[in-house]
Amino acid sequence: MSTANATRTTRRSRFDRLYTGDGAIDFVGRSKLWYTITLVLLVISIAAMLLRGFNLGIDFEGGTKISMPAGDLVAEEVEQTFVEATGVTPELTQIVGAGDSRVLEINSEHLSQEQIDNARQEIYDQHQPADSEGNVTPDAIGDSTVSESWGSTITNRMLLAMGVFFLAAAVYVAVRLQRDMALAAMGALIADGVIILGIYALFGLEITPAMIIGLLTVLTFSLYDTVIVFDKVRENTTGLLDSRRSTYAEQTNLAVNQTLMRSISTSVISALPIIALMIVAVWLMGVGTLRDLALIQLIGVIEGVISSLFLASSLLVTFVNRRRAYREHNREVEAYRAGELDDAAAGEGAASSSRRTVEAPVAPSGPTSQPTASWRPGAR
């Protein structure tokens, strides 16, 4: 065999070991590490939500947004003009997008129509913003207003949508998975949601309807990935208590390794169009809705696959090992490996010896008997 062929064989065998379990990554064995990391992230997320709060968009809080092509405008100067014209300090002044698509946005509390008109006129007089075609015109300055009552309605609907989602997810996993698997899947899903919301609170990212839609989407993706892993766990652990060859934790770890490459491939494939969307939305167009949707999906896809592989499987093993039958089975496996149970092989062999066998028919005896063909099952 040539050196090149040997190298290719070695490379294939490394990937094969992920599936067979030989030299696989010990995910479940590092459960304490994953729990510690998750706990730290949860504490930081909850603290950020309680201390910093959320940067709710205009659709939730209500208010007024004034926007215009950024061009050569300086955000601080335009903001000062806005304050002088309205007497109101804006909650947020920012430039979004890139290149010729940059847009300057000013978000403030709800303004009267007179205040809006004064702000637009003062900004036009002092800064001369140009539209997308380069023409200096007052029409380059746009405004939109959302009432507080409408914002409150949208907020209530957002909370209702999230509640319905988690209820539907709980019902699905309860029907689809075993009890311990359902508890582990929901625990990991809740942790996903808290950590993602914590990231938004910690960095002051804006909460918009598009972000909520994206959040529910990525949580669904995370749950789907967890179900795929747990299906493999269920396949690997069928009849586990009848054997002393491996523990539930070892078979779960094997399942995680067997689905590892699939999870990574799915995440990479999912991330590619999201990255493309971010490039188009943020760098080329500066479209706020697309930007919000792409950002939450990118964060969620990365966090979701990590949660499925590291947290959900560890939670599952922790829940299962609390059951008496599996604790006793773990002790039997350890004793068998230590050579303390010499009859283990015999006990396992009894199950195989109890299989139904098919014998060849016996030819009848006597003067009228005819030779009969014998039959036996072929070897598999």
Radius of gyration: 31 Å
CATH topology of the largest domain: Multidrug efflux transporter AcrB transmembrane fold
Structural class: alpha+beta
Per DSSP, the total helix count is 12
Instruction: Give the CATH class of the largest domain.
Output: Mainly Alpha
Beta-strand fraction estimate: 5-15%
Q: Which architecture of the largest domain per CATH?
A: Up-down Bundle
CATH homologous superfamily label of the largest domain: Multidrug efflux transporter AcrB transmembrane domain
Structural summary, described in words:
This protein has 380 residues and is an alpha+beta fold. The protein is built from twelve helices and six strands. The protein has two domains: 25-51 and 177-332, Multidrug efflux transporter AcrB transmembrane fold (Up-down Bundle), CATH 1.20.1640.10; 58-146, Alpha-Beta Plaits (2-Layer Sandwich). A four-stranded antiparallel sheet has the order 3-4-2-5. A two-stranded parallel ribbon has the order 1-6. The longest helix has 38 residues, at 248-285. It starts with a helix and ends in a 27-residue tail after the last helix. The model is unreliable at 344-380 (pLDDT under 50).
